């Protein structure tokens, strides 16, 4: 971390600031230019609050050199993390497809879709029981009853299940869920993240709608700092001015994450685009960019889906997608 | 709501879609162009899920004509809502300034600041006990102990208090809090919003970092739909590509909200800019744009503040600000 | 186009508006809801200025149903356009890689790079002579002298050349250039677009930093409306709040363009990311998403490059990239 | 400027880089941390191309400490610049309102509006003859004929005139124009900026749709570096995800500019919002934030305006606005 001091800073003030830093166990290297005097902090600066230093009246600017995350940082953990989801591995060369409906609606629906996506080669089943909806008047999910139906589909197919949690108080209901999803709108619900740091179940952490990659990794750090290092990231599009797609899928985030972190990263082209016919090209592009998996919405009757029908594939479309996904995976493995 | 059908839609499919709509109690007006056939829905379309209709294979596009919010809509509630916060009124011509430190740190700190801001004319005292911080290694607030100190400062000064809630399970601790703040990162924490809809305490709902004005009003609608209509909105800057300020304060939101909704709307220039010297010009601009109040961070020793020091005013700076705020308010009242 | 009228609109005013529309040769279909009355315009609405209608005091809102572009619209031109650049075809299954340095610096540099990229399989040579630089103190390009060097490299290798124009007055210098590039910052330099519409040389139109896909197609329409239909689009990243990459590459734009337009679309991963090591994964992702070509920066000595060194590949890196690009192309052709 | 070196950088490479810097007349201060070695550059770094240094394989990162602009920088020019537009002063306490129609349409229209806005107290007359329109099918302005009509209105009223230039080749037509406007879409049309740097006429430089404040000041620097220091900045809204207004007016830019630069800065609430009724509250807010002037669209018959009718005020509305603007100005002058 580099502290740029104001020209008019007095020696006594500078010494006080330096003492404050060394009291935190940091070393200091000074350098002086014509117009600027600079303090370089040496040591573990992830604990230092930049804005606290900015508040000092003699400070012109503060710039971070080291990343503010440690546990999620590839520098301190060079090997890819492989997350084990009830026997299904994600990361470090293990590619998985999570598939299923946006919402769990009926026993027939979730079981039928579960069987279909399993037969097509999906490794995990998704289905929402708690649904974050913009409108209070939209379908909010079946809650506990939905989770029960999801677990029945798990039993029927043997597929590990993934579903979203919206509040830490619901955790007891998630005991038999294999991978707990934190949705984009809760990426900075820090109370929830802290609670998920205390359990040992894998977490699928979606990127927030307006989160930088650094903020996203900091949210992973919240979970990991609590002791739970089983975090899978999931890029799902960010908010931009473009309206042709629901969000703007940021595939550059894949190589960025791969460089900065050891955590696996998946891509959700269904939510990113909101448009069924765009799921295939962007799924294949995600594989080409190096993603560790995909999350795809599949519904046995999209036109009747209680949520996100426009982006859901039919089981036939998903089967065709999986065929291409598998071939594409094999191709890139040997490229 | 207008449904634009695909050219090749068949009569049987169209009839099925029409039946689905009339079954929801909606009327339908049809119109046919050269290339397009349009169904106009008549009735309460706030309950209709646009994306559900989009999922129908014969639908080209769906466009909303009416706003999706009802209780927050000025059309159905032409008069300004006045929210009563333990006797302090906000909205409908009642202007208030909320002031205090970002975080409650010590008894001396919060009580001293409370006295100072009261003497300068603040109507409500703010102070954070639960702090949403990007990094798990930053100060997270004093939690329950912080709330106790805040309530002591309330007792000492008589100022109603405002503080942020981060999880519905903490609600019992907020019993004596006068105005409960929902922070930007929780604006779409729908489980929290639903719980706040069940209580009768006023809620200060900050705009999310990447929330449209419509989404913000829909979050207010969540609280109001539950029965709690005491919602005050607070603009605090949105995320853009500009980095000269922490966020981009969207003052246009004030006249937009005033047109679309009857709810009071305040402005937080401290968080929006993140820079102390910008608080004054943007506070005055917020008044000129029609805001119903301001939320300003004040700390007795900004350089030692445990959070957000760079944007905190000293009590002296706040006193000078209040002097100008009051004169500006009077000026615009008579303009 | 749909015009939603205000409730209180009077019959005489409505009739005046209807006359204004029918005078432009448009038909009108009316529909009436409980709260709204709607006029649907029938005919060629691409000539209608929505905001002109919005200015009418009886109009509540106007929504476009048909796209505002005609010549660039796939609806009226279902087959892929194939642009012939001096014998090198782009689009309709013809994939090309444009490669070369950001700036033309010396005869040796451009000729050496030209030979290298030709040997690796590039179809076109790029090199900038007029450089749009944020700072007036940065290298601005060699201008006419640079173009001469580029044409020498063309002669030496036989590769058609691509270079950016920054002002219509420079057109005489571009006589022997095979493909004229309009840069992101000039995508809405309408005077330039109009001039390029009058010539018969192919144009490479880069997407503006903050341009929607629709605005980008409207800029193509400017060129095409003038008579020059040889337009190749090039996605090069858009401006968002994310700072980990120089811009955010919007690969979703590829399938969107493919659906809405018949024009070929290439991808420039070098400018989009600004980071050398990200060029390969995003090049492959662009192919997977359906791009008709790539534009890649190559320099024989990136560390000494006068511009954009951090994103330039060495000729060796480019050769390795082309090897993968070719295999990936073949794979997706048969998928 | 600070160069952060990679851990594995070798001494010989570091020395080569240091020599490259000292050869440019820069001094170097080194500092070494546990994980990082830092070179601090001392001297005029505005000429240094950060990305050129980034391209060096031993460089981890480069961060700028000093602003990249000099002539526009308040550090080197502490007093406010006052721009004299044919006797009408802008900046340094001189507040002006530019008013007039979006487009010049007829002699009657422009002269009538000119008289009206003069009577209401406008200091300058605006009117577009060259119009940047998204669609080639929209009205493009009257060009040379329009300029003639504008100059007749100038003669009739004595008001200095402001109009937009879209191409440097049109400059001869602008000889009698008092203030030449560079529109948002041309803010980075560097060839145009360079030409405007060679003349001695004042320039009104609008902020680009996606331009950072720093890029905006760099565009001013282009003009100033050429010798023309008569630049007035104009904030007109930036592109964000919010769609309730046409753009998002960034009033924070006013105090930021005031701190960083000595140039006057005006605000255009008409283009920023695109909505007539929002012009007044945001005009007053702009004054409160410290703007040096306003640019407001006025049309004698907005419903018939050939462009931007929805945001144009009638002369009566403008008169009412001016009344409030004058009072607000006086109020803030004495606050």
From TrEMBL, chains A, B, C, D:
**Classification of source organism:** Bacteria, Bacillati, Bacillota, Clostridia, Lachnospirales
Q: Any idea which GO molecular function terms this record carries?
A: 3-deoxy-7-phosphoheptulonate synthase activity
Q: Which UniProt keywords apply?
A: Transferase
EC number, as in UniProt = 2.5.1.54
Query: Which Gene3D superfamilies does this UniProt record tie to the protein?
Result: Aldolase class I, Phospho-2-dehydro-3-deoxyheptonate aldolase, domain 1
Q: Which SUPFAM superfamilies match?
A: Aldolase
Q: Which residues form the DAHP synthase ferredoxin-like domain?
A: 1-67
- What this protein is called in its record is 3-deoxy-7-phosphoheptulonate synthase
């Amino acid at each position: 971390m580099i502290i740029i001091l104001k020209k008019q800073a007095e020696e006594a003030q500078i010494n006080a600031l330096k003492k404050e830093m060394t009291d935190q166990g940091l070393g200091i290297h000074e350098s002086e230019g014509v117009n600027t005097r600079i303090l370089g902090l040496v040591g573990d600066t992830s604990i230092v609050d930049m804005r606290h230093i900015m508040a000092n009246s003699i400070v012109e600017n503060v710039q971070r050199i080291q990343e503010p995350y440690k546990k999620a940082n590839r520098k301190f953990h060079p090997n890819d993390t492989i997350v084990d989801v009830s026997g299904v591995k994600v990361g470090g060369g293990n590619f998985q497809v999570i598939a299923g409906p946006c919402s769990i609606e009926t026993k027939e629906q979730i079981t039928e879709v579960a069987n279909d996506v399993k037969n097509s080669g999906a490794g995990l089943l998704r289905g929402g029981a708690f649904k974050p909806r913009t409108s209070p008047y939209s379908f909010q999910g079946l809650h506990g009853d939905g989770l029960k139906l999801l677990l029945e589909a798990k039993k029927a197919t043997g597929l590990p299940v993934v579903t979203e949690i919206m509040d830490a108080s619901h955790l007891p209901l998630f005991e038999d869920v294999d991978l707990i999803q934190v949705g984009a709108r809760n990426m900075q619900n820090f109370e929830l993240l802290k609670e998920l740091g205390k359990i040992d179940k894998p977490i699928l952490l979606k990127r927030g709608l307006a989160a930088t990659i650094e903020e996203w990794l900091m949210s992973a750090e919240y979970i990991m700092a609590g002791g739970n290092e089983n975090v899978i990231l999931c890029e799902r599009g960010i908010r931009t001015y473009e309206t042709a797609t629901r969000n703007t899928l940021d595939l550059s985030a894949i190589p960025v994450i791969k460089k900065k972190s050891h955590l696996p990263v998946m891509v959700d082209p269904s939510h990113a685009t909101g448009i069924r016919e765009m799921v295939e090209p962007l799924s294949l592009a995600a594989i080409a960019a190096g993603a560790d998996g995909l999350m795809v919405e599949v519904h046995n009757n999209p036109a009747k889906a209680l949520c996100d029908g426009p982006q859901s594939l039919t089981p036939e479309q998903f089967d065709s997608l999986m065929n291409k996904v598998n071939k594409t995976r094999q191709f890139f493995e040997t490229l």
